[in-house]
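[#protein-structures] MJ: dropping Tubulin-specific chaperone E here for a structure pass
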Amino acid sequence: MVKNFERSNHKSPRDLFLGAPSHNINVTVLPYHCKFVCFCIQYYRWLNELPTRNFVTVCPMRVINSESSTMTEGIPSDAVGRRVVCDGERGTVRYVGTVPPTAGVWLGVEWDNPERGKHDGSHEGVYYFTCRHPTGGSFVRPKKVSFGVDFLTAMKQRYEMELKQAIGEEIKISIKTVQLVGFEALSEKQRLENLTEASVANCDVCGAGPENEIKQTTPNIRTLNLSSNLLSSWEGVALITHQLEKLHELDLSHNRLSLPAEPASLSPSFRGLKVLALNSCALTWTEVLEFAPMWPQLEELYLYDNAITELHRPVNVLQSLTLLDLTSNPLTDGSEVLKLAELPRLEELKLSHMGLSSLQFNDVGPGCKTTMFPALRSLVLDDNNIAEWSVVNELDKLARLQQLAIDRNPLMSGERNRETARQLLIARVARLEFVNKIPVTPDERKGAELDYCKMFGEKWLESGGSRDQALSRPSEEFTAQHPRYQSLIQKYGAPEEGEMKKQKPFALKNQLLTITFVCPDASDRKPIEKKLPDSMIVQKMKGLLFRLLKIPGSELKLTYTSSKMEGKEIEIDNDLKPLQFYSIEDGDKVLVRWT
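AK: finished. structure tokens for Tubulin-specific chaperone E:
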């Protein structure tokens, strides 16, 4: 028979021409290459999601009648698209039926971990289902998998049966650690009623269960961890959250959730949600934006380790977001990040481990402030490929940036250069209060900026700079490389000729000093040898000693001795001066005493 369909407006075309309920029919699609590809149209909500074109053959593979067939006994009628677990591995059912020449019913499963699978959904040249990964699928017998349990069953197993062993132990609930104490004095019913933070992670939760029982049993939950379960749809999640009127924080990481037909219609079920984790859910950014109308009040969104390779500007969604975590997504193009620049309340952006090498705000020139990311105060760029100081210069254009994490980038590599790299970061970005999670003190900033002026003073003069401000005309090239330099000269004055340094910021092998720290009044402490840049200020050296000796810098009294002046100790008494100010040389000893 031949039927014409509009590809965009038929959700269940099977019952239009087969005379059987749509949920009981599997459909085989015969595309041009003539291999059989079997799909359950229930899994594809729209015809245009099927891999078909005009005049392909669509054949009913099997009409299953629960009254006359026993082949699906024990298998849910909506099995295709459902999540299952087998030997600890989770997957999604893509096919239910026979696989000739074997007898009996098989489940075709696409596994979350493709290493668990064996093929791409085909057997002996016949495609029964398709997978994202060429080895992501396999066939398993129904008796070997579990379709999961409802929410309250999991809660009771976790908190009523296992709680006796868990008293006093710490459990993980979302991003928090909670200690279970005092529960022995409560009845089982009270325990569940009083819970405000609950975790049923890895408990094979597949749905809500009986209507309204969640609301009656666990009415006070504010923080809920549903990660690593068998939830297959947002509709299923909404049936749970709709009954949790106080829900504030939700973790759905390591689930695979299909797109609802009308996401906005589910927003009442997430009306109070402020924090949402969707880590490792195989999501694209397009899918995130399609889901977003469900979360009108969302403030924090965690999307670690998904499949986000490109971004699109959020339009009328995610406008209340203050924190976004995109860590470990393959988003290597820095220009993609700018598509988030108009989020009005975004304060924290985590972009670690993504392969980024550059960020540019080309709407303004060097030394100016961009209108992009108007509220951004914290940026995490750890574990990327940033190797150029021009990227750091660009970050100074962010008007409110106060916290920067940029560790484990080529820019920061090489332990002997870490202190100098930190100084340069502080000097190049004016408002930083934390660098790599360590606070920047006013004295450290002053020392870093003064040293920066000296480090590049000679290049400044060569480029046309002058101590006479009326004659100072540094080149555009120098200004682009050092956009803050002129303002620092105005703040501190130009460095004297004798103060200027000829070294390049990372050519430090000639400026590294081997220094031995000795504690003459504590014979039990062994001497410690360190290589330090001669530009390190005394305050930074005291910070190093605090980490080594656990003695606060305010209690330290430092002197040094040199082989050239045996028997004489020279006091190190100014925290803001660099080591070279005291003429400390390679091989000298710093004597450490404390009060």
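MJ: nice. Residues 442-455 form the longest helix (14 residues).
AK: one more thing. Confidence is low (pLDDT under 50) at residues 1-71, 173-186, 503-509.
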